[in-house]
Amino acid sequence: MRILSDKYIAGFLDSDGSISIGTNGRLRMVFTQKLSNDGVIERIYMALGKGSICESNGRRRGTMSYRRDLIIQGQSAVDILCRLKPYLVTKRKKANQLLRELGFIERIGTDSIPVFPSRSWLAGYFDGDGCIYAQKNRHNATASVKVSIVSSSLETDGIELVKKVFGGDITTRGGKSSWVLRLTPSNAEKFLSYIAPRLNNKREQAYFVLGCAKMGHFRDGENITKILRDMKTHPHRLNDLTSEVDVSLYIKQVKDIKDSSNRYRHYTGQKCYMCGSEKYYAKGLCNACWQRQRKAA
């Protein structure tokens, strides 16, 4: 079985992890993931070989467990942090600050972050706080497919780096900042194919969208939206990082619908029947004649 790389683990720590100094004055490192995707926590534990895994319950007594944490403390946390720090983006500056407070001056490095995200780091970062989702458009029944990453508004270096390379928009509301990219077949290939082979939690969803993108469109909004929703509800667990993901059965459910937008286009050379203008607008009229007719009515 292939072990997760340090770059992937650093990306996951940047998104769904935390580093702090505990009340006992020791460094504390925590990786967190909801139970439906907790397999990645076990893989990180196998790769690092340190820490303990525990489940966290809801705030009310008696509620069911909803997440799994990998907690590493003390000297082991310091050693692992120094091992991951060269690949960190959002938490690199904080890592150096904590090492300085703990007196590990000789282990402090530069605060500068990479100018381009590596495939493994971005895969870990996206597996942690990323999302692939779709919504059926009301007007033409196509799917609006998007990817997003949510982060703390105090740690936006990661999403800013992703936006710089892949485009998209960043919005901030409350204490959260979100990067959102609306996918087309071309930029879906650019973004998802860059990280899909290294994804763990969202590999199946990524390959499904890539399969739809090969059709050149996302016109079957109903099936694309439904399948992505089902994949999130019943995530597929990979037995091995090197194993292939077969999404052919899902792709067969997506219909290769022909473009029906021609019925909304005007034929070439159509003119206004009132004034003869070639600046055709609607209902056989140019914009000026249409406005006059509308006001007269």
Runs in which pLDDT lies below 50 for 5 or more consecutive residues are none
Please give the alpha-carbon distance between the first and last residues: 74 Å
Order of helices and strands: HEEHEEHHHEEHEEHHHHEEH
Write down how many β-strands occur, each being a DSSP E stretch of 2 or more residues. Answer: 10
Chain oligomer state: single chain
* Biggest β-sheet strands, sense, barrel: 4 strands, antiparallel
Give me the secondary-structure topology.
Elements: H1 6-16, E1 17-21, E2 27-34, H2 39-48, E3 52-57, E4 65-73, H3 74-84, H4 92-101, H5 119-129, E5 130-136, E6 143-152, H6 157-166, E7 169-173, E8 176-182, H7 185-195, H8 203-213, H9 221-233, H10 248-253, E9 280-282, E10 285-286, H11 287-296
Antiparallel strand pairs: 1-2, 2-4, 3-4, 5-6, 6-8, 7-8, 9-10
